[in-house]
Amino acid sequence: MRVVSGMRPTGRLHLGHYFGVIKNWLELQNNNECFFFAADWHALSTKYEDKLSLKALSLDLIKTWIACGIDMNQSTLFIQSHIKEHAELYLILNMITPVNWLERNPSYKDLLTQNEYKDKNMAGFLTYPVLQTADIILYDAQIVPIGEDQKPHLELAREIVRRFHHLFGTELFVEPKDILTPTSKLPGIDGRKMSKSYNNSIYLDDTSEDIWQKIRNAKTDTNRIKKTDPGNPEVCVVWEYHKIFSSQQTQEEIYNACTKGTIGCVACKKQCAQNIDTFIAPIREKKEELKDELIVEMLHSSTQKAQQVAKAKLAKVNEVIL
Ligand code: TRP
Ligand code: SF4
User: Fold this and answer.
1) Domain assignment of residue 127, yes or no
2) What is the pLDDT of residue 152?
3) CB 135 within 8 A of CB 285
4) Is 175 left (phi over 0), alpha (psi -120 to 50) or beta?
5) What is the pTM of this model?
6) Sign of the C-alpha dihedral computed for residues 252, 253, 258 and 264 taken in this order
């Protein structure tokens, strides 16, 4: 199957991204033809005034994917703005997309109620899903892995495709299906959803010391005062991490020791931080090795491949509409 997905380059990736998105991509790339890209134009739709260095952020994003195991021999990786056909198709789709479809989009309405976005109601923000539609249908994607919050965008993409087909009397595009990434069960160190804005994230390039400092401050069973107090792992964030990063045997030991009050939280956290570090270290080190110039070079042939597909599609589109 043809798979297309993107991420906005807005900053460092954390464990939530890994277990929410990247893990899914890693599985998909084995049996599908995947196109993954840094959606830098999409980042611009809300961050235009933040003076993000989008070039650097896009490279860093792709570097992190590769460090995690996304393989350029299997998957086609690129930066959205390098392929101008995204913009051309976006323009064309804007001509046939009713404004009220965009205004009633639940994601859009939802974001407008948030302080962070309400003053950023630019035309490009409203038409964000039209650009996303272009990203997808430009490559005839059959499958689009996305988070729950993106579902309305995919619905809209299908509606735009159907409208195009109806208007021009041709079945030029593929109607994309979404597959939902199971929401990551991994909480932030304060127990809330892991998110940059909550300042509770463990990043995929955190140092061993960063990881330890964060785990040291992670929320535990607050009823446990003394080391000998029996604890309840079910209300402890550290236990959630043990469940993902520690061996079955360690998990059993920790669970028993915690509930019996024979292990202190500090010792438990030390072990937890160490196991998280064992997971992150190879990603961190691989990322360190990958220099920007190398990534730029690696992106070259991948971008060309995406470019070819996009160009061919646009030629057909223009044949139909012009
Ligand atoms: N809107 C997506 C997000 O914020 C990113 C994105 C842009 C995307 N274009 C896409 C995802 C195309 C899937 C397909 O997560
Ligand atoms: Fe949490 Fe470990 Fe302390 Fe138990 S011992 S409350 S699992 S940190």
Assistant:
1) yes
2) 94
3) no
4) beta
5) 0.94
6) negative
The angle formed by the CA atoms of residues 9, 13 and 16, to the nearest 5 degrees, is 125
| Residue 199, in any domain of the structure | no
Q: Report CA 186 to chain centroid distance, whole Å.
A: 14
Structure tokens at 40: 């830098």
Q: Which long-range contacts (CB under 8 A, 24 or more apart) does 160-166 make?
A: 160/93, 160/96, 160/97, 160/130, 160/133, 161/133, 161/137, 163/96, 163/97, 164/93, 164/96
Number of domains in the chain: 2
Q: Are 143 and 157 contained in the same domain?
A: yes
- Taking the mean position of all CA atoms in its chain, how far away is CA 274? 25
Cα 20 to ligand 1 centroid, rounded to whole Å: 14
**Ligand 1 atom at minimal distance to the Cα of residue 145:** 13
238 CA → ligand 2 middle, Å: 6
In ligand 2, which atom is closest to the CA atom of 233? 7
With a Cβ cut-off of 6 Å, ligand 2 is lined by 220-221, 224, 231, 233, 236, 238-239, 254, 258, 263, 265, 268-269
Q: Which residue has the higher pLDDT, 135 or 119?
A: 135
Residue 38 CA to ligand 1 center (angstroms) comes to 9
Give residue for tokens 């940059």.
196
Nearest ligand 1 atom to alpha carbon 147: 15
Q: Are residues 260 and 314 in the same domain?
A: no
> 91-127: per-residue pLDDT in tens?
999 999 999 999 999 988 888 888 878 777 899 999 9
Distance 6 CA to ligand 1 centre (A): 5
